Queue: 3 jobs
Job 1
Amino acid sequence: MKPLRPHLPHATGCLVLVLIILLVLSGGCTQQSAGTAEPQSGIKVTQPDDSHIIVAFIGAPGMDDLLEMEVTVTDSAGKSLTLSKGSRDGATPLPLRSTISFSGAYSGSDHVAVTGYFVNQSSMALADTSI
């Protein structure tokens, strides 16, 4: 007599479905590559080499009334430098693709904090990242 061998097409299909779901979920859980801030904030932070950090206003929904971006970079030795672009006291929004460049010794882990100032006189943290 031939031994009974269960037919499991349903189980195989479920396994494939579970694997696909896990792949999709793990794709959404990956960390963002070093050197960039969340694009939803309208700010992009890059470090092209060990002596430069560039912060750019790339735009995002609700960011049309950004007057000024203030950026503080703290290098791995704890030295901080703050620069800004635009004027929170002005009435003209910051142009899209405005950038602030920092030059220095940025070979270790450096912290970048960006604060945005808006037409309605509010302010908001736009980026807070280490690169």
Job 2
Amino acid sequence: MKYAISTIAAGLLLAASSASAQFPNTATLTQSGIGNHSYVEQHRATSANVSITQTGNYNSVGDPAARTGGILQRDINGSDVTVTQSGDNNGLTLQQSVGDRNIVRVDQSGADNVATILQTDVFQSVENVVQQGERNMIDIRNSGSLATGSTITQRGSDNTVGVTTSVSGFSGPIVTQEGERNRTTVTQDNAFFSFASVSQQGMDNQATVNHIDTLSTTLFIVQTGNANQATANLGGSQNVSTITQAGNQNSATVNQSQYLSESTILQTGNLNTASITQTGLPAPQSATPNSAWITQTGDGHVAGIAQTGTGNSAGIQQR
């Protein structure tokens, strides 16, 4: 998966245009209903397209009266934005500052959904946001990023996703949440070729992902049930981690640092707790990774694994 993403990102770079000529912007607004608001302001551009379609009542893309929020773009250089909102009281804020070759797709249907995408340098960022239901919220903030994009889908009510990316590239999370009051927080700082996939179904599940100083890491979090918690703190290079939880009120934590670690946590049942901490070598001196796995089936199990060095292996299976 991470190699496919790397290939796509490299293709985006090769497709970048170095042309300095600026051409007219293009914007299309279509609204039907009562009290809908749209605001678009574009400055310099190579090829900029904005299409906004709003159907329903009191949907908003920015604030046209205050001239703030909705899709305010600056230098652009090939930004293609499409926004579709249907229902009532949905809101979008998008600000792209310098930018290069950015694509944003936002589709919100239902009521009281909110999406915020704020990008500063936005070099080749691609964002895809879909929200269906009520009172869902997505907040994406990229700063000084390189070819970083997020794909986020939420269905249900009161779900929340927050993504913060700083000085990172060729990475970006894929988050899918279905149900009620699920929450995902992803922080990427100096993270390159670092991939995270989070899938949550149920109610009150929470996933926290931290990619700090990473290179070529892969993370999968899958939670099904209610009130499960998963936390993954990844640092280093070529680390792979998987957290899978099914049931209620399970808790899993993975901490990885240095080079070439692997981990697997699988919990089925209720009130289980598992943690894996792996510290590898500071450099790729060995081709043998640390490996750890925890499988717990039932209720109330507690397991922990800690590894330091290289070539370690572990177990723990509780029924």
Job 3
Amino acid sequence: MIESMIMHLLQVVPMLLAVTQAGRLGTAGQPFGAYSAVEGWLTGFAVAALIISLILLFYLSVNHKRSLDNFKHQITGLKVHIEELQRRIADLEQQTPVKVSEQVSPEESEKLVAIQKS
């Protein structure tokens, strides 16, 4: 490929440096090198790879945005659920406590009082 570019450059420079119009037309008529089938296949492959890469990039960016939106929605739902649970906990803390002596034996009540003090 580099050799081909050098050959093109070597053929273009004399055309630009030609003094007369006839000299310019003579150098312009020369072929710029043999175009091989391999170059055509490589060019087609490069263009196809570029197009496929762009399609995959677009697909991945759309999926990334969609998954981010889904995660944000889930986080918002969890925040609402946590706030609801915190509100319920606060409501339960404000309710009057049940008398422990009515539910447990005196020995167990002493244990519970000791636990509450610590």
